Amino acid sequence: MKYQIKNDKLQVEILSLGAQMCSLKDVDGTEYLWQGNTKYWEDMAPNLFPYIARMTDKKYTVYGKTYEMDIHGFAKDTVFVAEQKAENHIVFSISDSEETRKQYPFAFVFEVDYRLEENTLFITYGVKNKDDKVMYFGVGGHPGFNVPLEEGLSFEDYYLEFDAMEEPNRVEFSSDCFVTGNTSKYELEGDKCILLKHNLFDDDAIILSNMSKGVTLKSDKGVKAIHVTYPDMPYIGFWHMPKTDAPYVCIEPWSSLPSRKDIVEDLATQPGLFSLEPNGEYQNQFAIEVK
Fold first, then answer.
1. How far is Cα 146 from Cα 151, in angstroms, rounded to an integer?
2. Smallest Cα–Cα separation from 223: which of 142, 129, 283, 152?
């Protein structure tokens, strides 16, 4: 099922499957969100829970037992319920089920809250631990944005500009996209920008830490831009399908990282995951401003 929220600046559509945003348009009708394409990438803006990216052998352990989970967790493949609905605001939720407990042995509620304020869409993740034991998880966003955003421009006309001059670290990955444990300085153009070109992503995603908490997708030849902020997310990723000329770029705020290379992680000891006490609640938010 598809839901819509809007105000006098923006119109957003969201699918109940995965609570995934499937359209983000301004009053001119410009579509900012990647619309999915089997040639490049079928998704548009999946929500990542309870794990981000890959697990070694698609496995992990917790409380002495081993479980299997596919890339980016199960939320993206689960039908959500629309709990609250207003013209400019909607909240989707899922809770544990027999199916989720096969992959993830916790009683929980996971919410995705979309709210429009002027020309900004706020996306808030909420997690509630309904279990009697500590719960471990990660959350993140994976929205793809059309590049170019305007006719007559090309992918290479665009760049990503951080809100402040930075010296970010790149999280280094193995060739099969697992964490190696190493980081390296990532050189920015003028200490603020990443110039877009398709071969940037030949080795898959660029994941940065120690960086500004906002980034703008823009072109000096155009007037339309996207500004993404992620105040409490320690990582930001940029990606499109490797070794292609895909006409989009994903801007991905992440709370945590994939498994370490060749390690079947114990969620209780994997670095960076959140732990939530019984009856505890957690929130994290990112925002997409249309400029």
1. 11
2. 152
Contact 139, 284 (CB under 8 A): yes
DSSP state of 168: P
Helix, coil or strand: residue 10? strand
Q: How far is CA 75 from the centre of its chain?
A: 12
Give the mean pLDDT of the chain. 96
What are the structure tokens assigned to 238, written together? 């940029």
Amino acid at 76: K
CB-based contact 218:210 (threshold 8 Å): no
First to last CA, the chain: 29
- The CA-atom distances, in angstroms, between 166 and each of 32, 214, 224 are 27, 11, 24
Asked if pLDDT for residue 278 goes beyond 90, the answer is: yes
Cβ atoms of 74 and 103 closer than 8 Å: yes
Give tens-digit pLDDT for 172-204: 999 898 999 889 999 999 889 999 999 999 999
Helices (H), 3-160: 98-103
| pLDDT value of residue 184 | 93
Beta-strand pair 140-141/281-290: unpaired
DSSP 174-234: -TTS-EEEEEEE---BTTTEEE--GGGGTTS-EEEES--SEEEEEETT-S--EEEE-TT-S
Cβ–Cβ under 8 Å, residues 51 and 137: yes
The answer to pTM > 0.70 is yes
